[in-house]
Amino acid sequence: MKRIGLVLAFALCTTGCATGASFLSSVEEAPKWFTEKIPKAEDAGYPTTASTPPRPADVPALASWDVKLAELKATGEALMAAERAQAGLDGLNSQDFLTNSLHRADVDTFDEEEAAAADAAEAAKKSSLTIKQ
Q: For residues 3 and 66, which has the higher predicted lDDT (pLDDT)?
């Protein structure tokens, strides 16, 4: 295990040196105007976080988004509760809900006799089609 770690560390160092050498060679081949600007950029340094602009006035603060989200969730829950209360679905179990839904949808349900009659009619239709051929 130690050997694998040493081999990986050696490979990483070798890759880093090769990459750094190629960067230096590309800088040496850079145009004169670019190499003249390198010391000026190094002297200027990186900007500090104090120099970043403040949040614009028209952008709301992050905490206000959390408040808006909580308000929207509360409004949504209130609407869903009102809709359930209006439909009379509060406290229904699944079977009652299915029965009420089928009743509201005015769905015709077949009983066993109607299903048998429908199957017999379908079989008669198929047999009449085969006789005609």
A: 66
- Give the CB-side neighbour count of residue 90, counting CA atoms within 13 A: 8
Give the Å distances, CA to CA, from 89 to 74, 75, 77, 107, 125: 20, 19, 15, 19, 43
Q: Tokens 């590309």 sit at which residue?
A: 26
Residue 75 is which amino acid? T
Token pair of 93, please?
């179990």
pLDDT digits (tens, 9 = 90+) for 96-126: 777 777 777 765 655 677 778 888 888 888 8
Question: Got the DSSP string for 58-106?
Answer: TSPPHHHHHHHHHHHHHHHHHHHHHHHHHHT-TT--HHHHHHHHHHHHT
Q: Which two tokens stand for residue 62?
A: 């992050």
H or E stretch covering 122: helix 112-132
